[in-house]
Each structure stands twice: as structure tokens, then as C-alpha cells.
Design goal:
With about 350 residues, the chain is an alpha/beta fold.
Length: about 350
């Protein structure tokens, strides 16, 4: 494979596809390279939830609010509103929520503190013995379809003229020359965009950009056995443990952090927390639903920025599980950076500056 693309995007998950789509629709000659199949990394292991509220992280919330607007305009995309409930069992969680609330609302998030009676009304599975103090409630959360988002962006990018190449791992990037090496040849470009998720750090390092991302972390989501008929509950997070659950058909989809090297111990911990939080689910068997590599940044906020060229080097990585919720807005930001337009958000808050990476 030889050729020249004006911009080469490395990574074919929802972030890279959004970037490729936004660039191509702006008239930029765009090539996307994906090592596997489209959406085969972190985009494969999502709960299919798009939401606005990210506690303690108003920057991610601002990206998510803007992205939700885009998803509402996404042709044919299913969006079933269920809301997002965060359970607080410690006073410092309530205090932190109240301190964070002005910034969240400034970001456009609709969120409020509710009492325990209202929380249990919204999710009647919450155990009576759970030491619940209060909860955060945001109606801006929807069950969607990640595969439809991946295919929708891919189709729109192709219609706009982008070339999407799968099974094409990038072996090296010479950012100073705008040269991208693959197993089947090299491409040169005016700009290279690194959106390779958990594999972004070494690629960015070749351009002199330090993205302090760990080795790829494997995320696992679990499904329960089929359950008796359940109420239609919101996506619910137990703040102290990170236990996240939502109804998926006649089962519960469950997540709680990262398994680490001892998967059996992690799964036992998930089962114990599930039983403590939702006693009616104590006997539900748990089975792997999805796994995928995540790119977790130290502050759980994405790195989006650029090293000016020519050739330019741009990056969008470290979304820490927020990629699906942030993808449309991230694509806009990278497009605007490349075109030299003023982005809608102060990009300095997302750049890999010494203050952030230190």
C-alpha cells in the first residue's frame, strides 16, 4: 500500500471514526487506519449508555452534553431515555456533589440531589439495609447502540470521501516527516491524528508528545442469568464501589472497575457488592458479556490537542471509558484544531500539558 492522504487518522473506534467523519465532511482528504475491525477496541466493551453527567469532571460533562445533541440528530440511532442515578452512602460524596454542582450546571448538565425515598422509587431494587444518604439524579442518560454509532460514522465518513482501511496495523510514525508505516507500505500526510485508544502512548511519543497512559487495561462487563420481570430502572452507579448496572432485556448488565490479574477475585467482589446493594439479585449468576481495552488517563479526562506542523500531529486519547459519550464533540474539536478554527471549548483544558502529565 502506497499513497498520500492529507490527513491520516490512526484508530477505528468511535473516536477515530468521529474524527475521520468530521474531517471528511469538512472537505479534508482523509485516510483512517485500523489494526483490527472497526470498533474492535474499547468500543466493543460499552454498556450502550450515552449520558451527560460525569461526577467531578465538568470538562467530560461538557463534551458529553454537546455529544448528546449530536446523537439526537444521528440518523436512525435508537435512544431510549432511562436516566442516570448515583447512590451516595458516604457524607463526603454528598459534599463533593454539592461543590461540583455549579460547574456541572455551567456545562449544561441537568442533575440534582434527591433524597433516599426518591432514589428507591426510581430504582426499587436498592436494598433496604444499604446505608443510603442521598443520590444524584440526571435524566440525561439513554440506552443506545454502540454498533450503530460505529457503523453510522463509518458510512458517513465513506460518503464524504474518507478511506477506511481495516486489518492495517501502524508499525511506526515519523511525525517530523508526516510518514506512517504499516505492514503493507507507508503513507505520507500533512497531518497525522492519533486516536488509537489504549495503544496511543507509543505513537504519540514518536511525535514528542507524552500521553501518560498505562498499558492497555482490560475492561469486562458481566451479564446476569435471565431474571424474573423487572421494573424499568435507570442506569445506576454505586459511588463507593463503582458498581454500575442497567437492565438489558431480561438480564442485568454489570460493570465494576477493571478485573486486573486475578479475575476470579474481581468477579467474587462484584457478586458480593451486587448482593449488598441489590439483595434480590444475590443469587443471580454472572457471565462475561464483553471485554475490551481501555485507555485510562490519570485524571479520567481525555487528552485532545496537537503539535503544530507542517506536518501536524494531533491526538485524542485517554477517554477512560467516556469515549462513546464524548465522541461527537471530540471529532469536532480535532477537526477545528486541524483547520485552525476556534474550537467551541478551550482546548487548553484537554491538551497534554506538563501540568496534566506531571
Amino acid at each position: 500500500m502506497t499513497g498520500q492522504g492529507r490527513v491520516v487518522v490512526v484508530g477505528g473506534g468511535v473516536i477515530g471514526l468521529s474524527i475521520a467523519c468530521h474531517l471528511a465532511e469538512a472537505g479534508v482528504d482523509t485516510v483512517l487506519l485500523e489494526r483490527g475491525t472497526l470498533g474492535s477496541g474499547a468500543s466493543r466493551a460499552t454498556a450502550d449508555v450515552v449520558r451527560a453527567y460525569f461526577a467531578g469532571n465538568p470538562v467530560s460533562s461538557a463534551l458529553a452534553v454537546r455529544s448528546l445533541r449530536a446523537y439526537h440528530d444521528f440518523p436512525g440511532l435508537p435512544l431510549r431515555q432511562v436516566g442516570y442515578l448515583v447512590l451516595f452512602t458516604e457524607q463526603d460524596q454528598v459534599t463533593a456533589f454539592e461543590a461540583d454542582l455549579p460547574a456541572q450546571r455551567a456545562a449544561g448538565v441537568e442533575v440534582e440531589l434527591i433524597d433516599t425515598d426518591e432514589a428507591r422509587r426510581l430504582n426499587p431494587l436498592i436494598g433496604g439495609d444499604l446505608p443510603l444518604l442521598a443520590a444524584a439524579w440526571s435524566a440525561q442518560a439513554y440506552i443506545s447502540d454502540t454498533a450503530a454509532i460505529v457503523s453510522g460514522y463509518a458510512e458517513a465518513a465513506r460518503r464524504a470521501g474518507a478511506r477506511l482501511r481495516t486489518g492495517c496495523p501502524v508499525t511506526a510514525i515519523d511525525a517530523d516527516r508526516g510518514r506512517v508505516e504499516t505492514g503493507s507500505g507507508a503513507l505520507t500526510a500533512d497531518a497525522v491524528v492519533c486516536a488509537a485508544g489504549a495503544w496511543s502512548a507509543p505513537l504519540a511519543r514518536s511525535a514528542g508528545v507524552d500521553l501518560p497512559l498505562p498499558e492497555p487495561i482490560i475492561q469486562e462487563l458481566l451479564l446476569t442469568d435471565p431474571l424474573p420481570p423487572m421494573p424499568d430502572i435507570p442506569v445506576t452507579l454505586h459511588a463507593a464501589s463503582g458498581l454500575l448496572m442497567r437492565l438489558r432485556g431480561d438480564r442485568m448488565l454489570i460493570g465494576m472497575g477493571y478485573p486486573g490479574p486475578d479475575r476470579d477475585a474481581w468477579r467474587a467482589g462484584v457478586a458480593a457488592q451486587l448482593a449488598a446493594t441489590y439483595p434480590s439479585l444475590a443469587q443471580a449468576g454472572l457471565h462475561t458479556a464483553f471485554t475490551g481495552a481501555r485507555d485510562a488517563s490519570p485524571d479520567r479526562t481525555a487528552f485532545i490537542g496537537h503539535r503544530q506542523g507542517p506536518p501536524a500531529f494531533l491526538y485524542a486519547a485517554g477517554f477512560s471509558g467516556h469515549g462513546l459519550c464524548n465522541a461527537p464533540a471530540a471529532g469536532e474539536l480535532v477537526r477545528d484544531l486541524y483547520l485552525g478554527q476556534d474550537p467551541w471549548l478551550d482546548i487548553a483544558t484537554l491538551a497534554a500539558t506538563p501540568e496534566r502529565v506531571g
